[in-house]
Amino acid sequence: MASRGRGVAPFLVILAFLVAQCFHQSTEAKKVTTNLHFFFHDTIGGPDPSAVLVASAVGRTGGPLAAFGNLFVLDDPLREGPEADSPVVGYARGFSMSTSRRSMMFVMGLDYGFTAGPFNGSSFSVFSQNPILDGDRELAVIGGRGKFRMAQGFALLRTHSVNDTSGDAVVEYNVTLFHDE
Ligand SMILES: *[C@@H]1O[C@H](CO)[C@@H](O)[C@H](O)[C@H]1NC(C)=O
Ligand SMILES: *[C@@H]1O[C@H](CO)[C@@H](O)[C@H](O)[C@H]1NC(C)=O
Ligand SMILES: *[C@@H]1O[C@H](CO)[C@@H](O)[C@H](O)[C@H]1NC(C)=O
User: Fold this and answer.
1) Best substitution site from 35, 36, 37 to test ligand 2's pocket, by max atoms within 8 Å of Cβ?
2) Model pLDDT for residues 63-82, shown as the tens digit of each residue
């Protein structure tokens, strides 16, 4: 009996390893790639702004919009095109804060939630710096919900237009997401 037991033990160890491997593989979801294109409409001026200043550095209120320490809350519509009446496909909601003492730099923490099309009800999340005066810039995508669960990726941005009086801006986005199937 004893010699038979010794012969079976290595086989059992290998079997246990194979079972563990199969289980590990079956729990690892497949990743798919999704590309998104839209325009982010940021309205600071007028009676119904989509971005509002909620805080400034103590003792420094009333300075330029991008003064170091300024914190904005955003509810910016995402539209198919750059025109103000282009169909809305979602909203970018969260905050944007001026975080550089030397250049025009914001750090944005935003949830880009879709309200139309195949990704209605899903969103991806960004937490990244955004040097808004640069021509082309890249934001890091750090997560997602719904169809974009477990998303990672990046967004390529280019400012389409800025109103120098109001600060209103339209920004073009190309987003690449890697997420669960
Ligand atoms: C998006 O989803 C919501 C919630 O399920 C639904 O009420 C709405 O009609 C959908 N919108 C479009 C444009 O499909
Ligand atoms: C987005 O992709 C389109 C098609 O490749 C390209 O024409 C456009 O310049 C890109 N825009 C940005 C901001 O990357
Ligand atoms: C720019 O903003 C100002 C102030 O809100 C507004 O009066 C003007 O019409 C805007 N210009 C354009 C081209 O939209």
Assistant:
1) 37
2) 888 999 999 999 999 999 99
Domain membership flag for residue 4 = no
CATH number of the domain that residue 84 is part of:
2.40.480.10
Q: Is 111 in the pocket of ligand 2 (CB under 6 A)?
A: no
Q: Is residue 169 part of a domain?
A: yes
Closest atom of ligand 2 to CA, residue 158: 13
- Specify the number of domains making up the chain: 1
| pLDDT tens sequence across 74-103 | 999 999 999 999 999 999 999 999 999 999
pLDDT score of 116 more than 90: yes
Q: With helix as H, strand as E and coil as C, how does 103-163 read?
A: CCCEEEEEEEEECCHHHCCCEEEEEEEECCCCCEEEEEEEEEEHHHCCCEEEEEEEEEEEC
